[in-house]
Design goal:
By secondary structure, the protein is mainly alpha-helical. It is built from 6 helices and no strands. Helices cover 56% and strands 0% of the residues.
Length: 134
Amino acid sequence: MGSYFLGTCPRCGFTTGKQQDDPSNELKSLWGQRGVSAQNSLTKAGELIAQNIPSDNTVKAKLQFMHKISDIKDPELIRGLQQYINSTHWQTGKGWHYLAAIIRNVGVNSERFKYNEKKRIGVPPPVRKLNELG
């Protein structure tokens, strides 16, 4: 006899067993766990998706997206959101799932990204104290 999962999937938000009454409450809770700048970027991306991709303009799609990115830190989230907003992915019909993939890849590649940026730009020179004359 096989085993099965009871509860809410942490990746997609699917709930087995009893159905949730109102998923918008859970969405508001997940949304409120983010910082102000992350919330602003999420709002901007949400508006672009809502205006250009009507099939992704649902509470369920947003909730699944928020579950997918629940373990991503805010700086990586903001970097991925800005990458999505500045490109034209939202104009080509790529919605919440594509955005989640961008953000997850930014999170996975963040250490290498920092290393390459440091290698490309360099580091500031060390602070040196000047000896005062006199």
